[in-house]
Amino acid sequence: MNIADIATSEYTEIDAQERLGKVKSIFERENPKGIVVTRDGEYAGVISERDLVRSRVADDAKAEVLVRSAPRVDRTEDVREVARVLVEGGTQIAPVYEGEKRWGIVSVDGILDAVLDNLDALDVSQIQTDDVVTIGEKEHVGKVINRLRENGISRLPVVDDDGRLVGVVTTHDIVEFAVRDTERQGRGDRRGDLERMLDLPVYDLMTSPVLTTTPGESVRDAVARMLDNDVAGLVVTPEADDGEIAGVLTKTDVLRALTYTEKQQMDVQITNVALLDDISRGAVVESVTEVADKYRDMQVHHAHVRFHEHKERLRGTPLIRCQIRLRTNRGQVAGSGEGYGAEHGFHVALDKLERNVLELKGIIADEEYEAQLLSKLGEL
User: Fold this and answer.
1) Same domain, 241 and 286
2) Are residues 148 and 226 in the same domain?
3) CATH number of the domain bearing residue 290
4) Are 233 and 280 in a shared domain?
């Protein structure tokens, strides 16, 4: 299936010199999945609500400071490839071209709606995220923003003092509150408003009751609920819903599942793939897979490779920081490093990852040996 019938020519576009204050207003008023940014009429990138919440930039700054790269796709591109582009770019939309002409955009919602009937074969438990980041209902909004930024996520389940689910707070909730609060205050002096907002308790912004799903529900039904309610994710709770949190299912989780192939190749997500100027995506995937394969007992569920460009340069080549994180049946293992150019930074991080994998292997081997020894002593 290609995206010829999934893409849309209706989208929101702004110039890179537009004020961020206007960008926030657009998100609050029109609730787009993302905004296309142009510079002198040429495509420059996209901005999402998550970008706004992560930033510490004032409303009078220019939109270009938050622009992120989202590779353009062709209208005849395969839907699996487009899903991969959206996951790796960390965006909800990507520009669609017909030849050299920008035709429109493709969105996560558009793809999921088109493939909805094909998702009936999957259960939520097969693709949900088990490691859930939460926030206490009495914590302040400032801590919510920091936690969203640090973990690169857009929603947080809210729990009470007993760890039971009582609500959910999202980047959209924060942007919506910030814009409405500003409009309510008028054009007068609003110094201190930001501090007042950051000091608000989470329960003032959270949504309750929470839309949920269960591990045994079909992904089709779960996604249909997301689309019907215009939310980006659901909290996974056990069949006997007693406030316990079993995981989270997001549209990104579902989109990532669409990129799986019958070859059982390890799922590797790359953030800021546009920085790969001197190394190919295939080389990155192959290298990470080789390291993971060195330890047969470690089943890698998902690998995430993140690139970040620093301002420092050496003979025109930027300093690149790379972080590689593997989510496995033995827990998480990671490696990070820096180098001039993506290839250098990646291999420094890969070397560190390999050392950590071997160290994990040694620790587990020691634990297994100790368990065997104790068992034999018990027999004696």
Assistant:
1) no
2) yes
3) 3.30.160.100
4) no
Instruction: Tell me the C-alpha distance between 148 and 32, whole Å.
Output: 20
- How far apart (Å, rounded) are the C-alpha atoms in residues 34 and 217? 29
d(CA 204, CA 222): 27
Average pLDDT across each block of 10 residues of the chain; the chain has 380 residues. List them in order: 86 92 87 89 87 74 85 86 81 89 92 90 88 90 85 87 91 76 44 63 88 93 94 88 85 84 60 82 85 68 84 88 80 86 93 82 48 47
- What gap in Å lies between CA 46 and CA 23, rounded to an integer? 11
CATH number of the domain to which 92 belongs: 3.10.580.10
**The pairing of beta strand 300-314 with beta strand 317-328:** antiparallel
| Helices 281-293 and 342-379: angle between axes, nearest 10 degrees | 20
Number of other residues whose CB lies within 10 A of the CB of residue 296: 8
Within the chain, residue ranges assigned H as helices are 20-30, 49-54, 79-89, 108-114, 124-127, 141-151, 171-185, 193-198, 219-229, 251-258, 281-293, 342-379
pTM value is 0.66
Q: Verify that 137 and 246 share a domain, yes or no.
A: yes
Domain boundary among 256, 281, 297: 256
DSSP string, 13-41: EEETTSBHHHHHHHHHHH--S-EEEEETT
The residue out of 106, 138, 164 marking a domain boundary is: 106
Q: Which of 85, 87, 95, 82 shows the shortest CA–CA distance to 35?
A: 95
Range of the domain at 283: 263-377
Distance CA 102, CA 43 (A): 8
Report yes or no: 266 and 297 within 8 Å, Cβ to Cβ: no
pLDDT at 339: 93
Tell me if 4 is assigned to some domain.
Answer: no
- Distance, in Å, from the CA atom of 120 to the CA atom of 21, rounded to the nearest integer, reads 42
For the chain, the farthest-separated pair of C-alpha atoms sits apart, in whole angstroms, at: 82
Decide if 114 is inside a domain: no
The answer to whether position 335 is within a domain reads: yes
Helix (H) / strand (E) containing 307: strand 300-314
User: What is the C-alpha to C-alpha distance for residues 15 and 197, in angstroms, rounded to an integer?
Assistant: 29
Indicate whether 321 belongs to any domain: yes
Tally the C-alpha atoms within 13 A of residue 208's C-alpha that lie toward its C-beta: 15
Q: How many domains does the chain have?
A: 3
